[in-house]
Amino acid sequence: MDKTLNFAHRGFSGEYPENTMIAFLKACDNGCDGIETDVQFTKDHVAVLCHDETLNRTTTGTGYIKDYTFKELYNLDAGIKFNNKFKNEKIPTLEQLLQLSKDKGIMLNLELKNTEIPYDGLEEHVINLVYKYNMQNKVILSSFNHYSMIKVKNIDSSIKTGLLYEADLYEPQEYCLKVGADCVHPQYFSVLKEDIVKKLKKNNLSINTYTVNNEDHMKRLISLNIDIIITNHPNILNKLLSKI
Ligand code: G3P
Ligand code: MG
C-alpha cells in the first residue's frame, strides 16, 4: 500500500501568504510531496495563481483578474495583506510554480478555477505548459467544474483529473467512472467513512482530500490510507507521516 502523500494547500498557507512563491518554497522546505494551487486566467491569457476570481481579498488590487493584463497584475502586492513582512510578494504565474516544482522534484495539483468564469481555452493552455516543463506525470488537474475535467480528458486522456466536491455524493465511484476521472477530490468529512473509501479504492480511484488542518482528522485519514491529504500545515502532516 502506498503511503499517504502530503500536499500543501495554496502552498504553506497556514503561515505564509496563500498562493505566493514564498508559500510554495516554504511548503517544500517543510517536507511536502506536492502543492495544491488555484489557476486563473488574465485578460492576455497568462495562467496565474490566486484562489479568488477577484483581487480584493489577497492583493492590493480590486476587481476581476480576467479584466487585467499580466503586466498590470505585476504591480500588485500579494503578501502585504497577510502580514507587512511579506510586502512585495507578487501574484505568481503557473510557469514560475512549474519551474520550482521541477527543480524541487515535487508534484502539483492544479485546480482550475473555472466555475464562476468559464475561461475559454484554459484547459488547453495549462496542459501545454505542463508539457513544456515535462511535468505531465507529476500533475493532477482538478476542478469543481466537472465539464472542464471531461474537456481535459478529450484534449489528452493521459493527464490525470480529479473531481472536486463539497458534500456527500451518492455512490461517488460510479459518478467518477462515468465522468472518466482518475481521482476524487472531496472535502475530507465525506471520506472519513470506511465503506466509501473501500468502494472508491476497489474501483482504482485515488482519494485526494481537502482541507485537513486538524491532527486527529489527519491521523484518521492516514489510517484509512487516503492517497493525498491537502493541508494548510504541511509541517504538522509531515511530522505525523514521518512517525509511520
Ligand atoms: O483543491 C482543494 C481545495 O483547494 C478546493 O477548495 O476553495 O480551497 O480552492 P478551495
Ligand atoms: Mg484550491
Automatic annotation (TrEMBL):
It holds the Pfam family GDPD. GO terms for molecular function: phosphoric diester hydrolase activity. CDD domains: GDPD_TtGDE_like (cd08563). It comes from the Bacteria. SUPFAM superfamilies: PLC-like phosphodiesterases (SSF51695). Residues 4-241 form the GP-PDE domain. One of its GO terms (biological process) is lipid metabolic process. Signal peptide: none annotated. This is Glycerophosphoryl diester phosphodiesterase.
